[in-house]
Write a structure and sequence with these properties.
EC 3.1.1.29; PTH2; Pep_tRNA_hydro_II_dom_sf
């Protein structure tokens, strides 16, 4: 069975959006920020485990595709979460505890073309 190519319709992608200000302005260690992204991605998969797209994504273990984007600050991340909720896009906003700080969010795996327009203003995380 051939893996779906990057340009193929229906290519499943899991988008993760991380606050870039955590590293660049608040001086969080890069490892701590990567950990936040891992938490959000794992939580989104867990919450939507029975979803058909999630199951297909997991069945293609060696060809999973994630895209990590940067949000400039907490307001942008929260605004994106609101936009995704209004659009009916399943995601998990990760809130670090006990500090109660929203750090990132992850979408459940979905066809790239269905969610990319909602994420257009966010650039790759640097």
């Amino acid at each position: 069975m051939a893996a779906t190519g990057a340009g193929s319709p229906g290519r499943l992608v899991q988008y993760v959006v991380v606050r870039s200000d955590l590293v660049h302005k608040l001086s969080w260690p890069l490892g701590a920020v990567i950990t936040q992204a891992c938490h959000a991605a794992t939580a989104a998969i867990h919450l939507h485990y029975a979803d058909a797209d999630t199951q297909r994504y997991l069945s293609e273990l060696d060809s999973m595709h994630k895209v990590v984007l940067g949000a400039p600050d907490e307001a942008a991340l929260s605004g994106l979460s609101d936009t995704l909720t209004q659009a009916g896009v399943a995601h998990k906003l990760w809130i670090e505890q006990p500090e109660n700080i929203p750090t990132c969010l992850a979408l459940k795996p979905c066809p790239k073309e269905t969610v990319q327009p909602l994420l257009r203003k966010f650039k790759l995380f640097k």
